[in-house]
């Protein structure tokens, strides 16, 4: 994978596309970012096949089908996905179907651009899988494109990235180098997010946040995620809770649940979070300081849904540093639902 990083690098997209030998790029973005998508497409001149501004959260199958058809009709030889995980996810869906390479221009901190993981939603169920064909061939990280990301979304998106690093640190397939990247990713984001909240147009802080997102996204791509990601997948898929805010609320609780079985992860997180003796509590405090949501209730979850999520999460066992029990999960979700500190 090629990576181009720095303020203003989106201007080098035409060179990048030419260097990769592509001639007809289909630009994908969400309807809210159509203007940005069209501006990026305009820079490509004759190498633009068209713009499809239909990306939506969790890649609904009908949108993926339309994007595949458009790519075929227009004779596209690559997709340029401009946006967050939803636009990049749509590019991955086209890559999965047609083998068209994806060039990613991320505008959030979600990290999808660094992973071979795809997701598709049909009939209310989200399927995910890994396929090397969906890993973008090139990523252009331009912090200038994140200046329009509202502060609230910047914070929750940054915490979403931190969650990838946290789980990479206690993953069953953790490795020393990926752990270094995870620790540095958490350090970068924990430092950049308060600066962003104070000064949203601080391009240097935006760059540090994107550097953290790159590190954390790479950790997500390199390791197997555990309880935290399973919980968020279930809360998002079953209850349609918003992706990044859900990660933000659940992370301190999932980490608190796992800390007793993840000594090395706790030590790394403690270092990354300014010698925090209890990283889970520090992340919960940080979310509060940054004005982020801290309860699932405020994201629209009903307390009566807790049992349903517990059943769903227990139905598919997976690796986790601490055994997952119905009682433990219920306690975790009740605290996260009510906005209580993690225990
Ligand atoms: P998103 O892509 O859904 O974006 C949220 C909203 O913010 C959209 O309306 C978008 O247009 C807008 N937006 C994005 N960047 C903006 C900017 N710079 N300025 C103004 N508005 C902007 O949100 P997300 O959190 O980046 O992605 C979530 C999706 O990505 C979920 O479906 C999640 O499952 C998926 N995801 C996948 C992976 C993976 O590895 N496959 C990793 C992380 C997330």
Automatic annotation (TrEMBL):
Q: Which GO terms describe its molecular function?
A: alcohol dehydrogenase (NAD+) activity; maleylacetate reductase activity; metal ion binding
**Which keywords fit this entry according to its UniProt record?**
NAD, Oxidoreductase
Q: Quick one: signal sequence residues?
A: none
Q: Which CDD domains match?
A: MAR
Can you give the residue ranges of the Fe-containing alcohol dehydrogenase-like C-terminal domain? 155-337
Q: Does the keyword Phosphoprotein apply?
A: no
Q: Does the keyword Oxidoreductase apply?
A: yes
Q: Give the matching InterPro entries.
A: ADH_Fe/GldA, ADH_Fe_C, Alcohol_dehydrogenase_Fe, MAR
The record, for SUPFAM superfamilies, names: Dehydroquinate synthase-like (SSF56796)
Show where the Alcohol dehydrogenase iron-type/glycerol dehydrogenase GldA domain sits: 2-143
Pfam family membership, one: ADH_Fe_C
Q: What family classification does the UniProt entry report for this protein?
A: Belongs to the iron-containing alcohol dehydrogenase family.
Protein name from the UniProt record = Maleylacetate reductase
Question: Which species is listed as the source?
Answer: Streptomyces phaeolivaceus
Q: What is the lineage of its organism?
A: Bacteria, Bacillati, Actinomycetota, Actinomycetes, Kitasatosporales
